[in-house]
Amino acid sequence: MKLKGIGIFALGTLFGLEGIKILSSKDAKKVYAHCTAGVLRAKDNVLDQVTTLQENCTDIYEEAKAINEERVNKESEEVIVNKKKSGKK
């Protein structure tokens, strides 16, 4: 039983060392570089979309403020007209 445990440990260590060699090879580094480049492109794309969304939200906010301002002015004019009409009677 002890020999089996030692053998499994030795195999695990061997595979671990070989795994490190494989992960640090030139081919693996190329794969990492390509993956990182893809992530950077995706990040740039997301940032562009966020900027567009922020600009659209700003436009919507400004338009909403203008609509509310116009509505308040219209209601004020109606109140003035109603006061003038009721004053004449």
Description:
This protein has 89 residues and is mainly α. 96% of the residues lie in helices and 0% in strands. It contains 2 helices and no strands.
Helix-strand layout with pairing:
Elements: H1 2-23, H2 26-88
Strand content: under 5%
Oligomer: single chain
- Can you tell me the residue ranges where pLDDT is under 50 for at least 5 consecutive residues? none
Class derived from helix and strand content: mainly alpha
Q: Helical proportion? A: over 70%
Number of strands: 0
Largest sheet: none
From the alpha carbons, calculate the radius of gyration and give it in angstroms: 35 Å
Head-to-tail CA distance between termini: 111 Å
Tally of alpha and pi helices:
2
Mean pLDDT reading: 87
- What pattern of helices and strands is seen along the backbone? HH
Q: Estimate the global geometry from the Cα principal axes.
A: rod-shaped
